[in-house]
Structure formats: C-alpha cells, structure tokens
Amino acid sequence: MLKKKTLFVVGAGGSVDFGFPTGPGLLTDIQHALNESRSGSSFRGNEYLLEALQQQARRGDGTTIFAARKKLHSILAGGAVSIDNVIETHKADFELVQVAKTAIALVIAKAEAKSNLRPRTKNSYSEYTHTDLNWLSFLLNNHFAGQPTSTLDALFDKMRFVSFNYDRCISHIVRMRVANYFQLEDSKAIRLSNTLKIIHPYGSLGLLPNGQDGEGSFGEVIGHVNLNKLASNLRTFTEGTEGVHDEKLKGEIEESLDWADHIVFVGFGYIPLNVQMLHTEKIRSRYRVVFGSAFKMTADNASVNRDIVMGTFNAQIVHGFNKEHDAMQFLQEFQARLFA
User: Fold this and answer.
1) Do 162 and 278 form a contact (C-beta atoms < 8 A)?
2) Residues 78-103: pLDDT tens digits?
3) Is the pLDDT higher at 62 or at 35?
4) CA dihedral defined by 14, 167, 47, 82, rounded to 10 degrees?
5) Which among 140, 270, 276, 135 is positioned nearest to 201, based on CA atoms?
6) How far apart are CA 322 and CA 142, in angstroms?
7) CA-based nearest residue to 268, from 25, 79, 15
8) Cα–Cα distance between 176 and 261 in angstroms, integer?
9) Do the beta carbons of residue 158 and residue 6 sit within 8 Å?
10) Residue 166: which residues within 8 A CB-CB, separation 6 or more?
C-alpha cells in the first residue's frame, strides 16, 4: 500500500489508456462535432449536439447560439492550445461558453461509450475481469496488496486525486477493482469507493449512480444522454476559481495539497491555467516530495516544468520528468518509493 499520504494530480494523458483524447485530440473532436458544410448553409455536426443547441435556442435568442457555434468552430480551425484556454479567453461570451461546454460533454460521453472500460454486460462489478493492465489498475493493485479485509474502512486514507479530466474513469475503475479484488457485492464496493476523495476542478459529466444502471451511468448510450444536463456539470477556469459556490472546491484543493506528503503528477501537461488552479500559499508551509511524468516532452520543456513544480509546490525532492516513460512506466519506475 502507499507509504505516505499521496495526492495524484491527473491530466489528459492519464485517460489516454482508456480511449479518451488528449488536449489536442479533444480540440479536434470538438471541431468535428461543430463542423458545418462548405457553403455554411446547413449544420453538419453531430445530430445530438444540434438537438442540444436547438434546446438552448428555444430558451433564448436562437440566432446567438448558432452564431456562437460558428465562432467557436472558426477559432478551433485556426488552432488553440486547449479548449480550456479558449473558454477562458472568451469567458464574457456566455453563448460561446455554453456551446463549448455542450460540445465537450458530447465528446467525453461518446468516449465513455466507446471506452474499453464500458461494461458490456450487467454482471456484478466483482466479476470484472478487464485484463488490460493500465497505470490506474497498477496503482490500485499495489495499494491493495497486503490490505486485510478487516480494515477496509481505512482503505483510502492515504490516497486522493485531483483530476483535470471531465471523464469518470477513475471513479469507475476504482469501483470495479475494489469489488473484484476484495470480492464485495456492488453496494458495498460503491460505498467503499465513495470514500476516496476525487476532486474535479473543471467538473465532470457528473457523479456515477449508485449502481451500474440509472441516469448518468458510465458509457450510457449517447442517444439517451441529456447533453445540456451533462454540460451543466462542467466548469470554466474562472468558475472554478471565482464562483461563490466554488469556495468549497478551492478549499478542498488547498486542504488536499496541504494534506499530502507526496504529490504525483500523472499525464499532466503543466498548462499554466491548471498549475495556477493548484497554486496556494498554504502549500508552502512545509516541504514535500513531488513525482512528475513528462511523457514525450522535449528535454527543455521537462526541465522548465520541473522547476515550476519545485517552486510552486515547495518540493524538497522532485523525481521523474523522463520523457521516455508513459504513465504506466512512470509509476513502475517509482514503485519502491511510493509503496510499502
């Protein structure tokens, strides 16, 4: 199990193993969903997105919603660092932000439906036999090792997550691994899994239901999804840092950063917006050890990001930042340092 109180900070690279797009891939998928005909006379994007936008249009000025869709498509066609940066730049344009959130919800919901994690049957979680070892399964297997069933209430006392992803992969996989590894019935596995703190600074598609069925279940058939409802669960950077209702979110992030002895960045791109979301003077109250992945980064970018992490998080020791290692190899490299 984990040696120290460990906070895992997960970026888009952490969901790649499960069939989800990275930041650039998300931009491309959104652009395709917003696509129009060459003449511009008709909407040729995804039909479910069109239906969702039509619902929004009926609640207000329909011309502004579809003008915002065209504007967003044009911006993405010209190139952008990330969809979060685009939304932050145009945060004053309410309709554009709404269109962007709705398109994100569509892309992530479709990715969940196509993911190899989506249950193909309604068997118990305990019968989960997904054999593709990924970084999260590797992490959980090592954390569960030697854990007696008599002390499961404390299973996640040393583990927390901050996920900048909109998907629910972490919650879903944790449920399945807990049920299968400890051979628990679904209700007990879900109850235990819910004790793991997972913070989504930008929101997610929503909480998973208390069972494999029900509205909002992982991989729900896209035609049955209410995209506008899913989109309402997503937050912009500004909403995540300035909104009154998100004071609790800011407090949870600060408390978890202060709580952690180890901070582990997995599949994280170190985009300034995201690093800023994690910045707090409170974290500088004591030293901690930081581990960072840097898969496919240039040596210079990895070095710069290492320095940023060291300064931002008051790191006494920084491990990692090896561009050759993906998320799985990164955790394997530091297995002995992280686990007892």
Assistant:
1) yes
2) 988 888 889 989 999 999 999 999 99
3) 35
4) -50
5) 276
6) 22
7) 15
8) 27
9) yes
10) 104, 105, 108, 200, 202, 203, 204, 205, 234
* Whole-number Å distance between alpha carbons of 17 and 2: 22
Cβ count within 10 A of residue 59: 9
3-state class (DSSP) for residue 234: strand
**Rounded Cα–Cα distance for residues 3 and 280 (Å):** 25
**Does the pLDDT at position 123 exceed 90?**
no
Q: What percent of the chain has pLDDT over 90?
A: 39
Q: Report residue 52 as tokens.
A: 């969702």
Q: How far apart are CA 310 and CA 302, in angstroms?
A: 12
Name the nearest CA neighbour of 15 among 232, 161, 182: 161
Contact assessment for residue 334 and residue 290, using Cβ atoms and an 8 Å cutoff: no
| Phi, psi (rounded to 5 degrees) for 159 | -130, 130
The domains of the chain, with CATH numbers, are 6-20+119-203+235-338 (3.40.50), 23-114 (no CATH)
- CB 76, CB 185: distance < 8 Å: no
**SS3 of 148, please?**
coil
pLDDT in tens, 308-329: 888 888 777 889 888 888 899 9
Q: How far apart are CA 206 and CA 214, in angstroms?
A: 12
Q: Three-state SS for 25?
A: helix
How far is the CA of 90 from the CAs of 25, 97, 101, 118, 226, in angstroms? Answer: 21, 7, 13, 34, 25
Count of CA atoms in the C-beta half-sphere (13 A) of 259: 17
- Is pLDDT larger for residue 37 or for residue 248? 248
Is residue 43 scored above 60 in pLDDT?
Answer: no
Residue 113: is it exposed, middle or buried by C-beta count within 10 angstroms (0-12/13-18/19+)? middle
What are the C-alpha distances in Å from 139 to residues 16, 76, 178, 330, 331? 16, 36, 12, 11, 7
What local confidence, expressed as pLDDT, does residue 40 receive? Answer: 45
